[in-house]
Amino acid sequence: MIKDYNSVTEVVGPLMAVEGVEGVKYDELVEIELQNGEKRRGRVVEIDHDVAMVQVFEGTKGINLQETTVRFLGRPLELGVSEDMIGRVFDGLGRPIDNGPKIIPEDKVDINGSSINPVSRDYPSEFIETGVSTIDGLNTLVRGQKLPIFSGSGLPHNKLAAQIARQAKVLGKDDKFAVVFAAMGITFEEAQYFIGDFNKTGAIDRAVLFMNLADDPAIERLSTPKMALTCAEFLAFEKGMHVLVIMTDMTNYAEALREVSAARKEVPGRRGYPGYLYTDLATLYERAGKIVGREGSITQIPILTMPEDDITHPIPDLTGYITEGQIILSRELYKKGYEPPINAIPSLSRLKDKGIGKGKTREDHADTMNQIYAGYASGLDAKQLSAILGESALSDADKAFAKFAERFEREYVDQGYYTDRSIEETLNIGWDLLKEIPRTELKRIKDELIDKYLGNGEGTDE
C-alpha cells in the first residue's frame, strides 16, 4: 500500500529521517517530491520504531523539511529487464542515457537478488579465452568464476577491462555470449573512452553498459553493480546466455559504502569502512556462477585500485577471500612500457586447472604453464643475483633463465591492448620462449610433450 508522509525531521548527507511511518519495510523504494515539484528516488536503509531512514539517490541538496512529501511505494528498487538491453548504455540506476528508444521490459526484477545456493551450483570447468596471454596461458579464466583484477592508481586497468570486454569468447561453441559492464565513480573522460571504444570496435553489439560517473551521487554508486548483476542474471538464467560481468572500480563502491555508513553514524571497522564490508562485497561476488540444469552462466571480473598499492588494504584483502584468485598489475612493468603490465608471479587463478588440458585448450597447457611460471621466477632471481654479484657469478643455467625472463616480459606479457591472441598462439609463444632454457632444466614438462613441441634437436642439452 502506497503511503505519503510530510514528516521529514532531519537531513544528514545523503540520508533523510521520516517520522511517524507505519508498515514500512527495509529496502522499500521511496519517491520524494520537493517543494518545487521535483521528484527524486530513494530507499529505506533503516527502521527504528516509527522512524525510517531513507537514502536519497539524487542527493538531499535543496530539500525543505516542511514542504517535502515522502511516498513509500511498497516495493524494492527494481530493474525492468529485456533482451533489448544488449547494445544499450544506462546510468547507475538503470535509466537509458544513449538517446535510444525506451526499453519495454519483459519483467521487473528486485535488484538485490540473492547469492546462488551452493547446492545448486555447477562447478566451473569451461575455458574462457580473453585473448590476453598472461591470463589465458598462466591464470586461466573459466566460466562461472570470480577473478578480480588488483590495480593501482594511475595503472591502465581501464584499458585492460575494455580489452577483455572486446575479446572474451567461449571456444568451440556457438553459445550466446554477452558482456555486462558496470562502471562506478569513473570520470567523464573514462566513460567516453569506454563508450567510444565499445562503439568503435563493435563490442557494443553484445554488451550492456551501466555508467555511474564521479560527480553522480554516491548513493547511486551502491546500486550500479546490483543493476548490472540483475541484468546479467536475467540474460544468463532466463535467456540461456553466458555473461561476463566486468565491474570497475570496486574501490569507489566501497568508498561510497563508507560514506553512507559514516552518515548513519555506524561504528567504523578497519580504515573506517563498515564492519559489514565483507558481507556486502560477498552479496555481489557470490551472484556469479553456474546453476545445475540451467544453460547460462555468470563470470565476474571485478576491478579495484589498491590504495597506495597496498594489497593488505581491506578492499583487496576481503575481495581475495571471497573470489577465486586475482590478477595483479605491476607498476614496475608499467614503467617499462609493457602493455598490459600483468605481474605473473603474484597473480593466481584458483580454478585454472579445471578449464585447461586436452579437449578444452591443448594437452600441453598445464605443463607449459607450470614451466613458464617456474622459469620466469628463476629468471627474476638470477637477474637480482646478477645485479648484486655481477653476471660472472651466474651459471650457464642462470644466464639462460635471465634471458628467458627478459624475453617473457617483452614477447609474452607485452602484447598491447588491441592484440587478440588465440590460446594456440599463446601456447606456441610459450614453447618458443622455452627454447632459451636447457632441456635438462625443463623438469615440469613430460618428455613426450617436449619431443612433440620442441623436437629432439631443439633447445640446449647442457
From TrEMBL:
Q: Give the GO terms filed under biological process for this record.
A: proton motive force-driven plasma membrane ATP synthesis
Residue intervals of the ATPase F1/V1/A1 complex alpha/beta subunit nucleotide-binding domain: 131-349
Q: Which GO terms describe its molecular function?
A: ATP binding; proton-transporting ATP synthase activity, rotational mechanism
Keyword annotations: ATP synthesis, Hydrogen ion transport, Ion transport, Transport
The cross-references to PROSITE patterns, in alphabetical order and at most eight, read: ATPASE_ALPHA_BETA
Output the HAMAP family linked to this UniProt entry: ATP_synth_B_arch
Q: What does it do?
A: Produces ATP from ADP in the presence of a proton gradient across the membrane. The V-type beta chain is a regulatory subunit.
Q: Which NCBIfam families match?
A: PRK04196.1 (NF003235)
Name used for this protein in its record: V-type ATP synthase beta chain
Natural source organism: Finegoldia magna (strain ATCC 29328 / DSM 20472 / WAL 2508)
Taxonomic classification:
Bacteria, Bacillati, Bacillota, Tissierellia, Tissierellales
Task: Point out the gene that encodes the protein.
Answer: atpB
